[in-house]
Amino acid sequence: MTGIGRRLAVALAAAGLTLVPAAPADADGIQAQEWALDTLHVREAWQTTKGSGITVAVLDTGVDDGHPDLKGQVLPGKDLIGFGARRGERAWARHGTAMAGIIAGHGHGASGGEGVLGVAPKARILPVRVILEDSDPARKKARSTRGGALAAGIRWAADHGADVINLSLGDDSASAHPEAAEDAAVQYALRKGAVVVASAGNGGEKGDRVSYPAAYPGVIAVTAVDRYGSRAAFSTRRWYATVCAPGVDVVIADPDKRYYEGWGTSAAAAFVSGSVALVRAAHPDLSPRQIRGLLTRTAQDVPEGGRSDDLGAGLVNPAAAIAAGNKTKPEAQQPAAAAAPNRYFGNGPGHTQSAHDDSGPSQMAFLAGLAGTALVVAAISLWRGSGPLRVPPRLRALLTGTRTR
């Protein structure tokens, strides 16, 4: 067990996962249900690039490098926990594998027509294990003391070639507050040219509390919408929202080689990380700030007034961002996010309160390991439709790592 692992709080909101037989993964099966790819005009972007040459770090519960939809794309990673479930155990790498599949799944089979397709199917995944799955028995034995895994993971990813850092995790509990080491790690990654993407939070029905790391300066914070473009009820509404992406009825891959549907801003962040990978592949010389600007300027379904706490600048559109990038001159030097005139890329913590500003950052320490978004798997068979599920409150906390007591 590493020093970080010993100190890391790994408690996650609990959720049960009902396993169902895998649906036939053919052209009329799994990939036909990936509505998000069409909504984001991903296939149009693929006419330019599929993300080749780009590395996306997935800071999560680990990634199954043997999954058929990811085989050959997962780089050697880093385990900053050092204990808990291991490969082959049920409580290993479920959430991280799901996020990696959304970002860079390439399907499998002779023509790649089976399994999950990600937004950037030729991008590489760099796994960094910073949290445990909710179902991991080890989390119950961990001490609720502060660990540095999240900050260390961000820095490690930036130092090991990450072009994009996906943080499908966060804490929007009553005890969440900004942590200097994590803020500094984000700024470090931005200065090294890595784009940092995080889920905005799943507190939309529980007070819309600020979520970290989404609220750190320079982070592209992502809210969730359904297939009709409407804000998902669980999606947090806050000043730091940058763009939105699909986060309802999302097809996900699992280490058990089966496929499920899930929801949450966790998935939405993964879709944006994949989109950023496409933009970076097409325009590798653009800075994180410029890429963020492309995403916001070219977003579709723009809310009234050009931006909202619900949807940010609108639904991310990688194809349009790639096209706009052709007219963007690279910055001579990448400035630190902290030195920007508007440090928070938004109204920031001093803005006038809105109806959703019922609670600000709390004073207790943010638990980095707790930040894990154990993906809420609705356990819906992909070939066997079922009616709406009644989701317990604890289950709703999962996709951004919010805690329940």
From TrEMBL:
GO MF, one annotated term: serine-type endopeptidase activity
A GO BP term here is:
proteolysis
Q: One Gene Ontology cellular component annotation?
A: plasma membrane
- Peptidase S8/S53 domain ranges (all copies): 51-314
Query: How does the entry describe its membrane topology?
Result: Single-pass membrane protein
Coiled coil regions, renumbered to chain? none
Q: Where is the signal peptide?
A: 1-27
PROSITE patterns, sorted: SUBTILASE, SUBTILASE_ASP
| Annotated localization | Cell membrane
Biased segments, Low complexity type: 332-341
Q: Pfam families this protein is in?
A: Peptidase_S8
The active site lies at: 60 (charge relay system), 95 (charge relay system), 266 (charge relay system)
Q: Where is this region: Disordered?
A: 325-360
| Domain of life assignment | Bacteria
This protein's UniProt keywords: Cell membrane, Hydrolase, Membrane, Protease, Serine protease, Signal, Transmembrane, Transmembrane helix
NCBIfam families hit by this protein: T7SS_mycosin (TIGR03921)
Q: Which family does the UniProt entry place this protein in?
A: Belongs to the peptidase S8 family.
Query: Could you tell me what this protein is called?
Result: Type VII secretion-associated serine protease
